[in-house]
Amino acid sequence: MKKILYTIKRHNLSFCFFMTSPPTPLQLERGVKKVKLKLFPFKIYILLVLLVSCEKPAYRDISPVEDNRIVVDGIITNEMKSHKIILSKINTVQNDSLKPVTGAVVQIKTSDTIFNLSESPVGSGVYLTDSTTIGLETKIYEIYINYNGNIISGSDILNNVLSIPIATWTTDPITGMSHFKFICNTYNNIESAMYILELDWSNVSGYTNLPYKENHVTLYYYSLQSADLGELLGPKLETVLFPIGTKVIEKKYSLSPAHAEFIRSILLETQWSGGLFDAPHSNVTTNLKGDAVGFFGASAVVSRDFIITP
Amino acid sequence: MTKYNNKLLLFLVFTLMCNMLHAQLINVNKKISIKAKNKQLSEVLKEITSKSGIMFSYSPNIIPETTLISLKAKEKPVKELLDEIANNVQINWQIVENQIVLKPIQNIQTNRNSKEKFTISGYIKDKKTGEYLPGASVYIPNSNIGTISNSYGFYSLTLPKGNYQLAYSYIGYNIMNINVVLNENKIIESILEQEEIALVEIEVKANDVVSDFNNQISGTMTVSPSLIRKKPAPMGEPEIIKTLQTFPGVISGGDASVYYFVRGGQKDQNLILIDEAPVYNPSHLLGLFSSFVPEAVKSFTFYKSSMPAKFGGRLSSVLDIVTNDGNKNKFSGNVSLGIAASHIQLEGPLKKDKSSWFVSLRRSNIGWLFKRQEQNFDISFTDFNTKTNLRLGKKDRLFLSFYIGKDDFLQTTTNDKYGLEWSNVAGTIRWNHLYNEKLFANTTLYTSKYNYNFYLSQKNGTYWNTYIQTLGIKHDITFYKSPQNTFYLGLGLAVNSENPGNIILSNANSKQIIPVIEKCFNNDIWVYLENEREINRFFKLNYGLRLPFFLNNGPTKEYFFDENYNNTYSVNYEIKKVYNYFVNPEPRVLLKYKPDTFFNVSTSYTHTVQYLRQLGTSQSPLTSLEVWYPSSPGLKPETADQISLSFSKLFVKKDIEINIETYYKWMHNVTEYAAHADLLINPLIKGELRLSEGNSYGVEFSVRKNSRKITYWLGYIWSRSFLQSPDINNGVKYTAYYDHPHTINFNLHFQAKPRIALSSNWIYSTGSPYTTPTSFYYYQGSQIPVYVARNNVRLPDYHRLDFNMEFILNKLQSKSQHKLTFTIYNAYNRHNPFSLNFNKIVNDANHYVIPQNTNSTPETISTYKYIFGIVPSITYLWQF
User: How far is B733 from chain A (nearest CA, A)?
Assistant: First the structure.
């Protein structure tokens, strides 16, 4: 039998007692009241104390440092398509827009083939191969860039890729919105891989006439052969929600050891940074020689399409 | 013959009558009032003369007229005052004609001619509890002869045959004076009585009595736990380590952190001992609280330089914690209830005045508070201490100590739990044996284990585990050759094993895909010899040598690396195979110059070696997945050389002590890490380390005022700490992240009324160095930071004000006491950042999160993290 605490006031004194049944009308008339434990002070205390590690916006008073190195962002894959290399400049101001590097000579070479890339559209900093270009597994691909006499080069090996694990997601029954539950194991001692998921719900009823950025999402997931503190006990990630009926194109990219290390260093400096257990910061690695940052990668790709169902 | 005898009798009667007449002329029964505090003897005598008309006669050459004495009397006969003075200053008085003649009682000066020497030895105990008092002084007043009781309360003083007055003193206790006729070896168990509790304000040794000032050693502090109770603490839970962090030369790891950095050393360079067993992670709740309950602790001594040769294994400091022995006289205990934790402690005699037991249990209250807010969290910590001490005979004592501390930080999902769980276990068996009055020996058998599990699935038994465990035995001998010459010698052996982090999986198939990190086995063997001798009246020398041998054993697999840190080959070693060893002598020397009683200068040189490292790249104030890793082939031990110079001046009249210490420290093979070091689940963990050179220097200034009403303590430290490695920051020297050039600590304790005490402290330090981006670039839609240098900026300065109010609820004379303590931690709600980031966005729920959608390219903002805002708390303590 559950005991409930009641109180009654007599001569300015409160008397407390337990009862197993509700008070009778007579008892209620005489002023018997159920005791409501006031947890308010504890709640305040919890708010004050137990929500440790609070976060607030900060103003970083940093003098910008000019950096004239070129940023290389591109991957050649085993897909037959126009492969893209983006060349840009380093920004001295956070959130500044991408500043393209235009007019560069860009080539991708193997031991027996040279692919010439052309900037398209001109002035965009995006350099494309022709649409019949295809990377071959086990081959080493080298990038060559000449920008105003500044020679940049770098190479990567195109390793094969294993099959894609089945993605899972959960749907909130009230809002009807879903988010991914599992894409890949973040730790995988056998293979390092990158997963790019392109989500499109522009054909889902109610979302058809929205701007592109409001019904299209690109998400990146990684499976690496290492585990890091920032990854295990890292900061909270944005949860991207999408409706039932969203079309998903999931691509899995193989990563060479150097490429995996580059990705890991990016994650340590972005996604896994800003938690409770920050490590000393360092510059992200690169496989490029010359005045450049970024990475030129070579990956085998497997892909699959699916639609988000309830 | 009878006639002659009668004449003699008549002469004696006449003489006596004459004396009586004279005595009547100077009435020693005359009552006067006098109030003298730390006044010279000559001044006090003058005051007595002016009030009573009695004249004094003495020779300044043999009577220490400059000796400072305190005297308080209201309408007291002069005779009683003179007895009191005589007792304090070790003189005799007698009426000769119309004046009082002062003469010294026979003392060491006159006894020095005696060739025969005898030893006074024994234990110094607390009257109320029978606890042995470590660090108590035994001395001959107005001489430089004396000694200090060791950590077991034992003392030994060898003196020439003669009559002596001996004084026994300990902070917070009344001084006890006894007269000794030393014509044979004597065992004297002295029992000291505590001063009235409410009137004792400060327990930091070497402060309120000159003898303690004289015993002060450069870079060393001994503290009693009652000081810790009086200091404001986060959530009202008193903390030994948080108190330590306010000492000059100690830099705090941040709000709510048990980490501390001593004179530019790293956080793993501090040895923490509880009853002589090492504790490897003294933290609860990721560091919000430390493992030691102040009520369970008798005293702690902190060494930041000039560590005794018996201590080794860490570069920067030693924290030696001695737990309570237990009340030998009666059953007693205390209970405390706080917001964060509750504690109960019981103790009592096994055999009255001979043996006792002690039990202490602390359990957090955080869990149920959290459960109201977050139903699926299971957060708790527990500490359990117990000790038994047995007197086996006149010469033998046995101490059995055990400590276990445990933490759970688990989150429950629908059908599983994941999170952190760690524990510290330490146990010692110590046997004190007195070979003879001059030879004290202690044998310690100890064990310690720190175990840490990070559960990925508690249900499936999948977790990441690291541990370090030690089993050791040591034998320490103290030979009290003479008051001027003491030898300390000893030897020991410790067997260590470390698991530098492995994933434990229940699934047999999965075991094949997780790399195995080799466990490490090693032995520590050491011998040491230290001599403390008085060269002459002004100089005291302490020198010693510790010789440790560190041996790496199998079974293990050792990886070898080239100069570019690439793994070249590996070797498997079989069980018990010693495949590598290090020998590093650790000399140390301390010279103390004491030109007078109130001033001393000391200088020291210490060389220390550290074979075990705690690996972890986190710069957070909170503990995380750190692992312990031994020195081995290709990984040299860390070494440090430190010189220090200190000046101490005691202004007795004003109860003020000023200390200035300066130091320079060179550190070699200090642990640093490769960029983005991979330390978890990496068999090649050694290849991620970068051994660096470090140097630190600084000046520590402190002023202490101790009086009955007000005690304050102001400390200012100017210090710098740098590291340099060819593989980090392009080989350019950089500031360590714990470099805080300016640190100020101000502690105030005010005994407003006998039952009400107020305390406060204010802390300031320069912000920590931090690495922040100077530019950015885009890669796959994310903004990637670019850094120009390591630790190129500093976080905002750290400062905090805390208050504490203690009320004794019952009468002071009551046998049991009820205390209520109100604490306000961080009174002006300062948000002290411990990290600064640039990579967050604000989501719909108004939380700062890392962006995931690379299509939207939202503007990222900078944020900072802090631990505590204002934290009020209340604690109730019942002592019985």
Answer: 15
E strand map for B567-631: 567-573, 578-583, 586-596, 599-610, 612-615, 627-630
Which regions of chain B carry the CATH code 3.55.50.30?
2-104
Here the tokens at position A29 are: 């008339």
> How far does the CA of residue A214 sit from the closest CA of chain B (Å)?
8
Distance CA B163, CA B140 (A): 11
Q: B726: cis peptide before it, omega within 30°?
A: no
Task: Find the residue in B nearest to A43 (Cα).
Answer: B373
Residue B5 buriedness (CB in 10 A; 0-12 / 13-18 / 19+) = exposed
> Boundaries of CATH 2.40.170.20 in chain B?
221-613+639-879
- Which of B370, B837, B852 faces A237 most closely, judged by CB atoms? B852
- Mark yes or no for CB contact A273/B680 under 8 Å: no
Q: Looking at domain B2-104, which of 3.40.50.1970, 3.55.50.30, 3.40.50.20, 1.10.1040.10 is its CATH number?
A: 3.55.50.30
Q: Which residues of B touch A274 (CB under 8 A)?
A: 835, 837, 839-840, 848, 850, 863, 865
DSSP string, B296-355: GEEEEEEESSS--TT--S-SSEEEEEEE----SSS-EEEEEEESSEEEEEEEEEEETTTE
Contacts of B839 in chain A (CB under 8 A): 270-271, 273-274
Q: Which part of chain B has CATH 2.60.40.1120?
A: 108-195
Q: What is the pLDDT of residues A7-58, one digit of tens each?
A: 666 655 556 566 667 777 777 777 776 655 444 444 444 444 444 558 888 8
| A 62-101 residues inside an 8 A Cβ radius of B | 62-67, 71, 73, 88-96, 98
The class (CATH top level) of B221-613+639-879 is mainly beta
Q: State the nearest Cα–Cα gap between A3 and chain B, in angstroms.
A: 20
Contact B320, B428 (CB under 8 A): no
The answer, for A175 touching chain B at a CB cutoff of 8 Å, is no
A255 Cβ under 8 Å from any chain B Cβ: no
Q: Three-state SS for B45?
A: helix
Q: For residues B543 and B527, what is the distance between their CA atoms, to the nearest angstrom?
A: 15
Say which of B369, B624, B782 has its CB closest to residue A229: B624
For chain B, how big is the Rg over CA atoms in Å? 31
Contacts of A188 in chain B (CB under 8 A): 513
Burial class (CB within 10 angstroms; exposed 0-12, middle 13-18, buried 19+) of B477: middle
DSSP three-state, residue B170: coil
Mean pLDDT by 10 residues, chain B (880 residues): 48 44 62 82 84 77 68 84 77 74 60 72 86 84 79 87 82 80 84 63 41 62 73 79 85 86 93 94 85 86 90 94 89 90 92 89 80 69 93 90 91 79 95 91 96 85 91 95 91 96 74 81 96 89 96 94 93 93 96 85 95 91 88 95 93 83 96 92 93 95 84 92 94 94 92 89 92 92 92 92 90 84 90 88 86 81 87 88
**CATH 2.60.40 intervals, chain A:** 70-152
The per-residue pLDDT for range A207-217, each reduced to its tens digit, is 998 898 889 99
Structure tokens at B766: 């320069």
Best mutation target, B257, B410, B414, B676, to test chain A (most A CBs within 10 A): B676
What is the CB neighbour count within 10 angstroms for residue B450?
Answer: 23
Residue B596 CA to residue B615 CA, distance in Å, equals: 47
Chain B residue with the nearest C-alpha to that of A262:
B676
Distances, alpha carbon B559 to alpha carbons B504, B518, B568, B684, B773, in Å? 22, 10, 8, 7, 35
Fold that domain A70-152 belongs to in CATH: Immunoglobulin-like (2.60.40)
B108-195 sits in which CATH class? mainly beta
